[in-house]
Every structure is written in C-alpha cells, then in structure tokens.
Design goal:
- The structure is a homodimer of 600-residue chains.
- With 600 residues, the first copy, chain A, is an alpha+beta fold.
- Chain A contains 14 helices and 32 strands.
- In chain A, strands 4, 8, 9, 10, 11, 12, 13, 22 and 25 form a nine-stranded mixed sheet that branches. A six-stranded mixed sheet of chain A has the order 1-29-28-30-31-32, sandwiched between helices. A five-stranded mixed sheet of chain A has the order 17-15-16-18-21, covered by helices on one side.
- In chain A, helix 1 (23-30) packs across helix 11 (474-484).
- The longest helix of chain A has 22 residues, at 169-190.
- Chains A, B: It comes from Georgenia thermotolerans.
- Chains A, B: It catalyses: tRNA(Pro) + L-proline + ATP = L-prolyl-tRNA(Pro) + AMP + diphosphate.
- Chains A, B: Its EC number is 6.1.1.15.
C-alpha cells in the first residue's frame, strides 16, 4: 500500500523532546515513529509499527528455522506459579501487581518461565516428546525504578522469549547452542553489532548464561574484553585466585598507633610517616578496608554484613548486588550500626567480623551480633595487610589472611579496572559499554523442579526436565538499531528494517513533476517495493529534504528541477551519494540498489 | 514450514474440559488450539495462533483498504485521560486497576478512545488533516464479573479498535459508513453470519450505534428482528408511543376494597370477583404495577426510584440497566425502603411517587423523600389503570395517566416479547440470540470535547472534532467461527482461516506409505500450500482420523492401504466427501480444491 505523506499519520518535529537524552529516543520521537504515553510506555505510530513488524519477522523466521514453535501467553497472570518458584517475592517492587474484582493476586508478567514450564507439564509426559523449543513475541512489563532512554529501558516492551526443554544436560547444551547460533543470525541480519559476554544468571537461576551486548557509549551495561577473546559483563568478571603464600617466615602482626587515620589516604600517610618500611613506601594496595553493608532479603529480613577488600579498590555495588541476589544491598545506615559498639568507625578490622568476631554457638551458627564477613579473592591465604585494630587511632600491621583471621567466604565486590588480568589468562581487560539486546540462560532444573515438570525416560523412570530460556528485547533492539544508524540529520535505516525501501519526493510546483513522481511511486510499488511518496503540494523542497533525512528511508528518488533536463536524482541516505538518471531508468536502478542492500 | 504431528506442540484430548459449556470452548481446548491460564485468560498454542493470525490479517487488509492506518497503543495506561472523560469512575469494578511503584494509578485499557483522541490532538491541528482513521489490533482487558464460554467472554482478549476523526457531521457519517462496509466485507470473508442491529451507545456515549451480532443459540445478547427489516438488540428496542387518548368522558377514579391482593394475580382475581366490569374480565394488562429500584451512581450515591409498567410485563433488568447507565440498577432492599412508611408493600400507587408524592420545593426540585418515578411508554396520557391506593387492601380503579397522575419521564423498563410491534411499523418482532462480534459507534464530540481536541476550520475558527469508534472482537470472532463450524467430531474450519490448507495422513506401517505421504506433503508445500503432516510412526489409523477430524483442517489426503492399488484418498472435512486419486494427481487436485474454497 503506497504511503503518501499528505495523508500519512506522521508529524515530524524540529525540536528534541524535553525528556530525551539519547539519539534513538530523540529521533524516533522527532521522526514520528513513537510517542510517549507514560514514563517508559510508548505508542507506536504507523512508521514505527512497520519497522517493528520487520524486526519481529526476522526474529520469527530464525526461531522457526531452528524448529522453535510459536505460542502466545497472556500478560496478565495469577501469582501462584510465580509463588511456587519464589519469584513473586524475589521481584519485589520490580513487577506490576494487581488484584482482580475478587481480590485474587495477579501480575503483569516480566518473563514467562513458570507458565511455559506448566504448559509443557500439562501436555507432555515422555522423553520421546523432547527436545522441545517454544517461543512467543509478546508484550512484557517491568516496573523499572528509572525508566530511561526511550525504548531502551521501558516499562511496557516487546520481547521474544523462547524456552527449551530437554531430558538431559547434553540435550540442553545442544538446545542452548542452537539458540545461540540463531541469535547470531538474527543480529547479523539486523545489521546490529554485538558482543557475546559471560553473564550472571541472577534471579533467573541456572548454570550458564551469556548476554548479547550491542557496544555503544550510551549503553547502561559495562562489559570487559581481553585480547585473547574473553568477554563478560562486569558483574560476571571473576578475579583470578592468587596462589596461596606459605605462612613460614611471615613476621607476626603488631598493633601500632596511627592517630587520625580513619580513611585509606590518611592511613597510608600515617603508616609512611610513623612506621615506614625500608624497601618501599606503603600504598593503598597494602591496606585491607572493611565495608559494612545492609542486605534486604526477599522475605523482608535485614542483615548487616561486612566485606573486606584491598584499600585501592572501590566497592562496585552492581557487582556486589549481582553476587548477593536476590537480596538487595545498600551501604549500612546509622540505624544498622546501633548496638554494635565493637565497630569503631574508620578502624574496623577482621577482629570483630565474621568467625573472628563474637563467639559462635556449638553448632557453628553465628549468634545474634556476629555479622557475616566476606573477602575479595585478592585477600588470599598468606597475604599480609594493614587494617583496623578495632581501637580508635590504631591499626594492625602485617595481619596475615588465613593465619591471623578468616572469613565466611569470598565475594566479587571490588570494581573491575581497565588492565586487570582476564580470569582465563587471555590478557589485560578493556572496559566498554553496551546495550543488552539478548540474553540466553541454561536454566537447568530450577523451574522444572519447583513446578514438578517430569517426563518418563527410556527406562520408564520419571526425570526432571532441564530447561533453557532465551530472550531478545525486540523494542530495545529496534532502539539500538536506531542508535547505531543515525547522523545529525536523522535516522538512517538499514534496508532490512526500513519502514519503506524508497522515498519519492516531488519538489517544486510544476505539475509535470508531480505527475512524474506519482507515476514513479506507482511503478516502484508495482515492482514490489514499499514506497513512501511525498506528494504534499504546498511544502517546500527544503522541508521535504529535511523530513526525508529525518525519516531515514535508505533510498530517495527526487523529482524536481532536473526533470526539465530529463533526469531525476537517486540518493542514498547512508552515504549521501547522488546519481542523476532518466525517469524511465529509475525503477530498475532503485530495484537493483534495494536488492543489493537486502543481499548485502 | 511443514508442520509434522510428531513434533508439533499439540495434544488432543478425548474429554471435554470440565469448565467448558459451549462447543467452541470445548473443541478449541480439546484440539489443542488454546489452554486456560486463569479464569477468562487463555494461552494460544501453535495451531490456535495460526488461525488467529489469519483472522487478524483479514481484518488488517480491510482496514487498510479503507485508508485506516495501523498504530499500536500500550495496554498499561495512566488514569488521567480516563478521569477527564469520567470513565475512570464509570467503569467501576469492570476494569483492572493498579498502582506503579510510585503509587500512581494505572489501568489495563478496555478500549482506547481517550488515547486516540489525545494522540490526534498531539499531532494534528487543521481541518486539512481530516478525515483520519486509525486502528490497532491489540490486547485488551476487562475484569468481567462472570467470564464465560472460553474466548467469548474473556478478561484478556484481542480487539481491533478503530477511530475516525472528522470536522463535521457529514464527515462522521461517511467515516461511519466506510467502517460499516468494511465490517461487512470482513465478516463475509470470514464466512461468519451476522445481523446488524441497532444498539444503545451506553457508556461509550454518542448518537448512533450498531452491533454486528452472529446469530447463535449460545449467544448472550438477545436481539429482535421484524419481517420488514428492523433489527435491534433488546436493550435498544423502543416501544411505539401510543396516540394520546382524550380525557373527555373517562369516568372518575375510585378507591375500592381489594383485600389480600398484593400481587398482580391476586389483584386480577379480586377485581373480577368484587368489582367485575360488564363487557369483559379484568386482566393483568389493565393493572399498573410500580416497582421500586435502587440505583448506584458512579460517584457512589444511592438513589431509590420507582418504575411503573403494565402488570402483564416483567421488568427487564438489562434493558433498564442500559437505560440508566452509567448508574447500576438493582431491586431495592429493605434498607432502601426504611423510613418510607408511605410505601405500602403490594399496594404502592402513583399517589406517593414522583411529582404526585411528597410536595416539591418552589424550584421544582424533588425534596428529600420524593423519589423519581418513571413510566413505561405504554402508560400514556389517557390510559386508565387499576393500581395501588397506598392503603393496605385497597386499589384505585380507573386512574387516568396525565389526568390523575404524572411521572418524571418515561423509561424502557419492560421486557420485549415475541410478537411485539416493531417501532418502525415493520411488523411483529421475532426474538433471537447472538454473539456480539463487532460494534460501531458514531461517538460525536463527547471525547473530543472532554479532551479538547479541536482543529481550525477553513475560516480559521477552532472547532471540536467529531469521532467514531469501531471495534471487532478478534478472539471472540474466532470463537464464533469455531462455534459455527463444528460437528460432533470436531472443528470444521473454513479454508480462509484454517491453520493449514491440507492434512496429509500416513496410515498403517508400510514404509512405502510413509515415503509417499512425506513426498506428497513436501510437494503440496512446494505448491504453496500450508500442510500439516501426520507422520507419527506408531499411532493407529483410527487415532489419526479422529485427530484430523478434531483439528478440522478442510482437506485431508489419506495415504494408506489404497496405495498398493495406486490410489490415495482426498477427503473434505465439511461434507465428508471422499475421492480416490492417483498419488501423482493428488497435488493438482488439492490445489484446485483449495483455490475453489478460497475463491468461494
């Protein structure tokens, strides 16, 4: 159906919307692809809906190609399945909850593991029914604390979510690999650059997980990569475990005066001033700082813990959060510290923390008051530290981990820095930012076990099914595409997802121009192309050009002044290339360029 | 993509689901098209999704053909626009409401008049931009008190909703007519019988409204039609106004003893026994009964009113409800009647009701205690009645409407009966039942005025836009199709919406059968058809036939015993016709039958 600018429901805007920070958000609104309906909630206008349909279709084709079958679940779901897996509680304020007229609890689903699990349980019962892969392209909801960047972090958005069901681990591995390859084909076809990074499974559970990140400076996810090919999001980066150092010959620890040294900077200064060591000065890396944090568990319980890490590293709350999920973590407040006089602010040491702190009961359980103590992996057995002596103005020097103190475990709490070694030995890490456009999880048996999805195996024995979960943020991928394909004049769609293949512009007032343009538009459509025709009679050529550049259709045919000399102009939006051509040759030339782009 | 029964995500059931009452619900579940996720909320399985996509596509094509442009609104919406039009309150418990993490009120939209109005206001400003028609195919929500009949009355469902915008009434009339014709083409293409009936505008507001009803005994809407072509849903039927009768010569009213006659039956009996009239006996039609009802207004206010109607007619609460919207109506309770000693149960008459009751103030306003009194149109000026005398055991005879008592207005409160005259004089009414599959409204300026949607007219004057709203229940239409196209063996899809064109069955154990069937399935697909292939190796022919009949694909090709004699069988699901044909001729024959069906 030929789209005419005179009647198309679109109004381009010259000004950026006030609430827009990133290019995709600004341009999609200015070009009339989307409109904001509420924070993080958008309406799709005709041109936007056409791009969306093309993105969905590419995803659908690649899902179908690996034998995944399309279904469609409701968005409005009862709480019970999510209660069975614990996610009703774990999601906390991040999901929309409501009650129906009878007072029954419902949610707007943020993802559908539970429902797919129950559906398969409902229909299937034998190993012969597996493997199975199902998917849907469906509207999802998350009550984001800070919706931002237009479609990039919305509260109502479209996802493709797929789920695989296998009888054993090898099957899951194959299913995971099939989806991973399909994702690569999808993003390749979309022309969307991506990096596959190791990720945490987080609230999803499961054994293995990778993210597809689109690298961009406006991305809200930080990831790392090494020259040797290691890639992970920053939450998933692990710190290589140093070799343990033998205790033999390490001098004993001693408590020394370090007056007025409650911070790492003042401590290093005091140590070098009052207790210099002969070979080299003390640095922040020689100090062990202990940070007190408060966790809120899904059941509402609040727990105060301490984390010890080298003094030259900051705590990375996102990494810490990922390590402690589903609990929510924040710095401890004065309230949390009330009734703990052993914590001397600025001088806290392992002596009062974890197993070193208040004595534990016979059963090894921590009694009230002995807080959990977790250490950065760098604080490994045999390493010696300057750290708080739990007395005002005093630190202990040469305190050796594993000899003089222990902890309740290790934790990845420290920031990752450019140049840190990759955990697999593949070289120094580089830091970059990206948008998460896909995420695949080898879930394993978490959901199947919680919801009792079993099948009979070849021996007639009931075995719990193992699952994978695979998501693509369709609306977010579209935003990433807009972000990656834009310049200062507007959008520059790749042919594969453009709302039209070609934009015909009639410029000037000459009737012959409009007649020729109308004929060309009709002929291009008859040749099987999707055509946008700017037929507006009283709009200047300048406005039409500006609109065409803002809308970002890959090819334009400009019919104007040149027509008197027997030529029209074919323009390419991306490169700016222009060529003059006889009107009669224009259709064949445009078809050729479209075919090249689609093949490309 | 060839669908193989061995891997298709479907399990047919031999038993009807326990909660299913109607054929479409039973069969869509048994055949594995849908599954219940919660009351009135369904999941679409692969075959169901294919039918749904075809229904949507037909609707989309006909909308596009009349120049309507597709957009897509969120389902989750802030309350403010709905508050501006009053519907946030009017919808009462019939919508799902929720709050986000900041405590802001949201709803799951049941329809989108407000949002479309605001979007057009946002983008357009001149009469030159109009007419405009927009539509979406989108998931909607209503918190039905009694979800029932599977997809027919659901709580999450898919609608096509369209909206027209015009500068004047003639424009609205044209837009309404375009949609009306598109609806006729849609239902014709779907092969879905329909009747267009006059309807009430109800909570939608507006001047004119028609429903598209699919006639079926399981429909929950009652409608009427006359031999002369009048059709209306029962709420919209109006009672012809009788000619006024002159008061001259009518005898005066007199109060007579009618002991123990609190019901119409006992009253008619007492009247004939104690006060017979010479020419003919009294009947219920000579009595005027006054029914006390309680209204709950959207603002929560409760109002007690009385309705007077001939004693031989029952009150139809649905008609009354439609007449009194948005208030909710129910019979008055004892609590409502407290403090009203003038109401003598069983003997209530006009003497204590409305303008005849407690005296009113100078301003004509009813003081507290004088309840509104509304009359059936049959109780017209000059008609004489036996009715309550407001004294125990006494009725008044010959009380003349307009002479001896008046009311606050008329109301359509009485049941419609088979044989009642059509209001347009086109003959006696016949009653029938149907499913509402479409509803079109000439809304007029209600929404545009409430939300201040104006455009400049040709004279530069701001004028309020006039709108129409046009809905098709996509999932309900699919259910109606299933309901209309089924037999005792299962579904019988029309070719236009079938999940596949042809179902190939390999029966028996012979490898040659499976080889031929696989080749035929591939050839049929290569010929452009959608093919379902029952390739299950260890399933009996009987089960395969039963499944094929349940699934309802219009054509089958059975490859089995006949293959040894060089034939396969082509079966038509609807008629049961069978023909034997050489395998090599089967593809051409099936293509011919598919083309015939799609053309037909």
């Amino acid at each position: 159906m030929l789209m005419k600018m005179s009647s198309l429901f679109v109004r381009t805007l010259r000004e950026d919307p006030a609430d827009a920070e990133v290019a995709s958000h600004k341009l999609l609104v200015r070009a009339g692809y989307i409109r904001r309906a509420a924070p993080g909630i958008y309406t799709w206008l005709p041109l936007g809906l056409k791009v969306l349909a093309k993105v969905e279709q590419i995803v659908r084709e690649e899902m179908d190609a690996i034998g995944a079958q399309e279904v469609h679940f409701p968005a409005l779901l009862p709480k019970e399945p999510y209660e069975a897996t614990g996610r009703w509680v774990e999601y906390g304020p991040n999901i929309f909850r409501l009650q129906d007229r009878k007072g029954a609890d419902y949610l707007l689903a943020p993802t559908h593991e539970e429902l797919f699990t129950l559906l398969v349980k409902d229909l299937y019962s034998s190993y012969k029914d597996l493997p199975l892969a199902l998917y849907q392209i469906q509207t999802k909801y998350r009550d984001e604390a800070r919706p931002r960047a237009g479609l990039i972090r919305g509260r109502e958005f479209i996802m493709k979510d797929a789920y695989s069901f296998d009888v054993d681990d090898e099957g899951l591995e194959r299913s995971y690999e099939l989806q991973r390859q399909a994702y690569q084909r999808i993003f390749d076809r979309l022309g969307l650059e991506y990096v596959i990074v190791k990720a945490m499974s987080g609230a999803m559970g499961g054994s293995r997980s990778e993210e597809f990140l689109h690298p961009t400076a406006i991305g809200e996810d930080t990831f790392v990569r090494s020259p040797g090919g290691y890639a992970a999001n920053v939450e998933a980066v692990t710190t290589p475990n140093p070799e343990p150092i033998p205790f033999d010959g390490l001098p004993p620890a001693e408590v020394l005066d370090t007056p007025d040294s409650p911070t790492i900077d003042t401590l290093v200064d005091a140590a070098n001033r009052l207790h210099p060591r002969p070979d080299r000065p003390w640095t922040a890396a020689d100090t062990l700082k202990n940070v007190v944090l408060a966790l809120t568990h899904p059941d509402g319980r609040r727990e105060v813990i301490a984390v010890g890490l080298p003094g030259d590293r900051e705590v990375d709350l996102k990494r810490l959060q990922a390590a402690l999920e589903p609990a929510e973590v924040e710095p401890a407040t004065d309230d949390d510290l009330k009734g703990r006089p052993e914590l001397v602010k600025g001088y806290i040491g392992p002596g009062v923390l974890g197993p070193n702190g208040a004595p534990r009961g016979d059963d090894g359980e921590s009694p009230d008051g002995a807080m959990r103590y977790l250490l950065d992996p760098r604080v490994s057995p045999g390493t010696a530290w300057i750290t708080g002596a739990d007395l005002d103005g005093k630190h202990v020097f040469g305190l050796v981990a594993g000899r003089d103190f222990t902890a309740d475990g290790t934790i990845e709490a420290a920031e990752v820095r450019e140049g840190d070694p990759a955990p697999d030995g593949s070289g120094p890490l580089e830091l970059a930012r990206g948008i998460e456009i896909g995420h695949i999880f080898a879930l394993g048996r978490k959901y199947a076990a919680a919801l009792d999805l079993k099948v009979l195996d070849a021996n007639g024995k009931a075995v719990t099914v193992t699952m994978g979960s695979y998501g693509i943020g369709i609306t977010r991928a579209l935003a990433a595409l807009a972000e990656a394909n834009a310049d200062d004049k507007g959008l520059v769609w790749p042919m594969q997802v453009a709302p039209a293949h070609v934009h015909v512009l009639a410029t000037g007032k000459d009737q012959a121009v409009f007649d020729t343009a109308a004929r060309l538009a009709a002929d291009l459509e008859a040749a099987g192309l999707e055509v946008l025709y700017d037929d507006r009679p009283k709009v200047s050529a300048g406005v039409k050009f500006a609109d065409a550049e803002l809308l970002g259709v890959p090819l334009s045919v400009v019919v104007g002044r040149g027509l008197a000399d027997g030529v029209v102009e074919v323009r390419r939006r991306a490169s700016g290339e222009r060529e003059e051509i006889a009107p009669d040759a224009a259709v064949a030339r445009v078809c050729e360029l479209v075919d090249q782009a689609l093949a490309g």
